[in-house]
Design brief:
The complex is a heterodimer of chains A (508) and B (487).
Chain A (H helix, E strand, L loop, with lengths): L6 H17 L6 H25 L8 E9 L7 E9 L3 H18 L7 H20 L3 H10 L1 H11 L4 H30 L1 E2 L4 E3 L2 H9 L8 H19 L7 H9 L2 H26 L1 H6 L1 H21 L3 H22 L2 H32 L10 H4 L1 H15 L5 H16 L1 H7 L1 H18 L15 H19 L2 H19 L1
Helix pairs in contact in A: 1-2, 1-4, 2-3, 2-4, 3-4, 3-11, 3-15, 3-21, 4-5, 4-6, 4-11, 5-7, 6-7, 7-9, 7-10, 9-11, 10-14, 11-15, 13-14, 13-19, 13-20, 14-15, 14-18, 14-20, 15-17, 15-18, 15-21, 15-22, 17-20, 17-21, 18-19, 18-21
Chain B lengths: L13 H18 L8 H23 L5 E3 L4 E3 L1 H24 L8 H18 L5 H19 L6 H32 L4 H9 L6 H19 L7 H8 L2 H26 L11 H23 L6 H21 L3 H29 L10 H4 L1 H15 L5 H15 L3 H27 L12 H19 L1 H9 L2
Antiparallel strand pairs in B: 1-2
Classes of the chains: A mainly alpha (508), B mainly alpha (487).
């Protein structure tokens, strides 16, 4: 009976139940609002666990597929678009990550001090949008969800952020709007070059049709050969903006600095992953040859991202900025892993997506706790917090170590796999890149030490350690980071299933 | 070909005749209307006349079988014509409803005339949608234009408004003259006033006539561009939009535009014929390129200049200039289905947003964009609905505006005009900035201006209809698309 449930749709729309309930709760009652929000985020988490159990890691096809006809072809209007969902080994971990981090962010919303009702409604809408991005098996549907996430994020940054929040919200909107505009053009080009579905004799945006047409040499393709390099490069830019890829990273720094910590947890933890996910799904799956051709460029950009982010992180005197550049740096590892193009590197890249999602969510949870108590995140104004907040400082040290890639934590596994993959293909670039690992240790430890050790400032004498609401997500995130670090096969066995497509294409 | 008109043929003209009779009756009634009674009664009668006319149209649509042609194509009943007329009537009905709460005595001394004048304007637009004869088309255009000149000038005691109305009349007449001049070339070459015959004759013309064809096209284009408010013929729009009564502005932005679109939809096929395939001279490609260039200029100018506007009606004027660009794009791809879908989307979001503006400017007594400040705190429901309308205008998914732009873009990408698609999509992203600026004002600013905002019930109904339809047809576009193609 359980098998017949449309599990993906349930996960996708379950946050909306919370939205409906929240609409009828008085807006000044903070406690019930947050309780409802947390409980709502638990639904997809539980359903996600069921999804994981039902997932067949051996079967390399797309699973749990659901399809509903949406727009059907007419005489002149010769397109058909469908509501089509499915998961594979790449999207499943990201869906679980989304459910998990959304719950953590709902807990972390204790830091939100005003307009809770609207906040939680937007947070849940955002969650639905992100689920949709990772589940969609149709280009149009993917784009709809991808673009839709802009709206709740715009509000979340613009209303609850720091001083220059509205500027950051605009930056976010315009940069991502441009990125998705480029992506949209490529999608439409794909519809007309390889989107002709013979079974319905109409154009479609179905990912399966487009992929099989693009990869099948016997299918006639209009202009596909001439355009495919263009399309790949444009996709690289479009998703590069989201990723963020050097030089399109400035907006990420602004959002990290200005958005409220609970939102940055989602932004840095999940939203950035949509860029890498899109690159794998559409860039690598539809254009495997171009991915190989452009691997060196990708690797170079990856190395630049990694080193540039690390160097700039080293120069910051403000915790949020350090973490922002650290995010950029860590996304460089994803690019390097993807550039390697072998099974190890690709798995490392996806592993890094998950690992960085968890670690940066944890770090920003800590930022929220610190900022709420001290009202600052500038390093010179902080120090000695370990004396008053031993628990928080302990978790912070742990998160810092995880971020710099300490063995037995998830960050290490991801970095190791990505670098090992790249060494196999481009040893020189990998060697240059590995300098960044040292830099990461320096900037992370510098930040952690400056904040937790040293002299406690006079005005911070009366600080209290974390509350239950903050401790729960901290412990949960910590636990997952350790589990994945100690037993990475838990994740790699799933990711392997999703990588089958690529290894197959390259091998054949 | 039968060129006589029989009494039975009048039945085919019922939608127009209904309005025509209603204009006479209601304008006479207005004369004898009790001095101290509310003129809203006239508005209600107008609304009824519009709905009856729309009822006849729907009846006609259900029983339509092929094309009905009267008086040598002077009067045509055809598939897309009926759709356009329905759109016009829907738009005018919404505008009349919006006017109940927006048109006030102290601003407009002659409210009765206001409602009555909306009908000949609508009738003009309907005539434009039901003819293939250039004389009849021009009469429809002038009926629409002259009615809207008066409508724009209705704020008699408002200096700015009078100035704008005067400019509108002068420039509008010049545009009409350009159209008429362009038509005269067509008549000269085609030897007929019937567009189908002109089209057929143009195809067989010797190449020495080709410059004349270009001349007639460019003359017409100037006129079209003006009436459509497409850049670089748009300069009147911001001024007129900011000075005219807001319901009239929404009429100009939606109904005038829709009427011009059907007008161009009838005229452009005349030029869409490849001439002289031997010498490979195709006017078709030049015409399409010209349309693309004007469309590109409109989209760029509209969306960039809108960024700097402080007056909300001027801002919407530039938004409508940008939309004129999108319409020109879809006209050039000659895809009526997509044109109708986006036109309905545009109608709903534009009338909806103007309805919000009427309520706000009446409480604030000015038109600065700050009237939106803190709207979420004073009128949360209205604010959320405004957000949906703005998202539709910006082209964010889950709204009709998004799907409409998507369909237009598909048509452009299919004919491989990538540069135009790029301009269209990038200028849409630029437009995010000013649409979201209004959203920012509503949600992220305090309400310094006014403490309470009264949105009249009728205005609220108009906004709600627009919002619900915008979302409904975004989730279920199939209903509208199949209705458009239903034969």
């Amino acid at each position: 009976m359980l098998e017949s449930l449309p599990l993906l749709s349930l996960i996708l729309f379950s946050p909306l139940i919370g939205v409906l309930i929240l609409l009828f709760v008085p807006k000044h009652k903070r406690k019930p609002l947050q309780t409802i929000a947390i409980l709502t985020t638990l639904i997809p988490l539980v359903l996600g666990a069921m999804l994981l159990l039902q997932f067949d890691g051996v079967n390399s096809s797309v699973q749990m597929e659901e399809e509903l006809k949406w727009i059907q072809p007419l005489t002149y209007f010769n397109y058909h678009f469908a509501y089509q969902l499915g998961v594979d080994g790449i999207s499943l971990p990201l869906i679980l990550l989304t459910a998990f981090i959304a719950t953590a962010a709902a807990f972390a919303s204790v830091f939100i001090k005003k307009r809770w009702k609207l906040f939680f409604i937007l947070l849940l809408l955002l969650e639905t949008g992100i689920f949709g991005v990772f589940m969609a098996r149709d280009l149009l549907l993917f784009f709809i969800f991808f673009e839709f996430t802009l709206v709740p994020m715009f509000f979340l940054i613009g209303i609850w952020g720091e001083k220059r929040r509205e500027r950051a919200a605009n930056y976010y909107l315009i940069y991502n709007g441009l990125g998705s505009a480029i992506m949209f053009i490529v999608f439409m080009m794909l519809i007309f070059t390889v989107g002709y579905d013979i079974s319905t004799s109409s154009y479609t945006s179905s990912f399966d049709v487009i992929k099989s047409n693009a990869l099948d040499p016997s299918v006639f393709k209009f202009d596909f050969e001439e355009l495919k390099t263009w399309m790949f490069v444009l996709l690289l830019i479009a998703f590069g903006i989201k990723l963020p890829m050097f030089p399109f990273h400035t907006w990420v720094v602004k959002v990290h600095r200005e958005a409220p910590p609970a939102v940055v947890m989602i932004h840095s933890g999940i939203l950035l992953k949509m860029g890498a996910y899109g690159l794998i799904r559409f860039g690598y799956e539809i254009f495997p040859e171009q991915a190989v051709e452009w691997a060196t460029v990708l690797a170079v950009i990856g190395v630049i991202n990694f080193l540039y982010g690390a160097l700039l992180a080293l120069m910051q005197n403000e915790l949020r900025s350090i973490l922002a550049y650290s995010s950029i740096s860590h996304m460089g590892i994803v690019l390097m892993g993807l550039a390697a193009g072998n099974a190890l590197g690709m798995q490392g890249a996806v592993f890094q997506l998950i690992s960085h999602g968890l670690i940066s969510a944890l770090l920003f949870l800590i930022v929220g706790s610190i900022a709420e108590r001290t009202r600052t995140t500038a390093l010179p104004e902080l120090g000695g917090l370990a004396q008053r907040m031993p628990f928080l400082s302990g978790v912070f040290l742990f998160a810092g170590l995880a971020s710099l890639g300490l063995p037995a934590l998830s960050g290490f596994v991801a970095e190791f796999m990505s670098f090992a993959g790249l060494f196999e293909q481009m040893p020189v670039l990998a060697a240059i890149g590995s300098i960044g690992i040292v830099l990461a240790a320096v900037y992370m430890l510098r930040a952690v030490l400056a904040i937790t050790f040293g002299n406690l400032h006079a005005q911070h004498q009366s600080l209290k350690d974390v509350r239950m609401m903050e401790a729960i997500p901290m412990v949960a995130l910590t636990a997952v980071i350790i589990v994945l670090g100690v037993y990475p096969a838990l994740l790699t066995s799933i990711v392997e299933q999703g990588m089958a497509f690529y290894v197959m294409v390259k091998g054949g | 070909m039968d060129t006589r008109l029989f009494a039975a043929d009048l039945l085919d003209m019922l939608p127009e005749l209904t309005l025509f009779i209603a204009i006479i009756i209601i304008s006479l009634l207005d004369l004898f209307w009790p001095k101290n009674a509310s003129k809203k009664g006239i508005g209600v009668l107008t609304l009824i006349a519009l709905i009856v006319s729309a009822g006849f149209l729907i009846y006609q649509r259900i029983h339509l079988d092929g094309v009905i042609s009267l008086l040598n194509d002077s009067y045509l009943v055809y598939h897309y014509g009926i759709l356009f007329k329905l759109i016009v009537l829907l738009g005018v009905s919404l505008i009349v409803m919006m006017s109940f709460g927006a048109i006030r005595d102290k601003d407009i001394p002659h409210i009765g005339e206001y409602y009555v004048l909306l009908m000949p304007a609508a009738l003009g637009a309907m005539i434009m949608a039901s003819s293939a004869d250039i004389i009849t088309l021009f009469i429809g255009l002038e009926l629409l234009s002259i009615s809207s000149y008066i409508l724009v000038a209705l704020r008699k005691h408002h200096t700015k408004s009078n100035e704008a109305a005067f400019k509108y009349i002068v420039l509008g007449s010049i545009a009409s003259a350009f159209i008429l001049y362009g038509m005269s070339f067509l008549y000269g070459m085609g030897g007929s006033t019937n567009l189908f015959q002109i089209g057929a004759t143009l195809q067989s013309l010797e190449s020495s006539f080709h410059p004349m064809i270009y001349v007639s096209f460019f003359l017409l284009l100037v006129g079209f561009g003006f009436k459509l408010a497409a850049a670089p013929f748009h300069t009147w729009a911001p001024e007129v939009y900011s000075a005219a009564p807001t319901p009239v502005v929404s009429f100009l932005a939606v109904i005038s535009k829709a009427a011009m679109l059907i007008f161009m939809f009838m005229f452009l096929p005349v030029y869409f014929v490849p001439l002289d395939p031997v010498q490979n001279l195709t006017i078709y490609s030049d015409v399409v390129l010209t349309l693309h260039v004007v469309a590109a200029i409109s989209m760029i100018v509209g969306n960039i200049v809108a960024l700097m506007q402080k007056n909300v009606k001027r801002l919407l004027a530039f938004s409508s200039i940008a939309n004129a660009g999108y319409f020109l794009v879809v006209l050039s791809t000659d895809r009526p289905g997509e044109l109708v879908y986006y036109l309905v989307a545009y109608l709903l979001m534009t009338i909806g947003i103007f309805a919000v503006v009427t309520a706000l400017e009446n409480s604030a007594e000015h038109q600065d964009i700050s009237i939106f400040s803190g709207l979420y705190f004073t009128a949360p429901v209205t604010a959320v609905m405004t957000v949906i309308l703005l998202l539709s205008l910006a082209g964010i998914p889950l709204t009709m505006g998004f799907l409409g732009k998507f369909f237009i873009l598909l048509g452009v990408i299919q004919v491989k005009t990538y540069w135009l698609a790029a301009i269209m999509i990038v200028s849409s992203v630029i437009s995010f900035y000013y649409y979201f600026r209004i959203i920012r004002l509503m949600f992220m600013r305090s309400h310094s201006e006014h403490t309470t905002i009264k949105v009249p019930v009728t205005t609220m109904i108009v906004i709600a209809i627009c919002v619900v339809a915008t979302i409904f047809f975004a989730f279920f576009p199939q209903y509208m698309l199949s209705f458009i193609e239903w034969t």
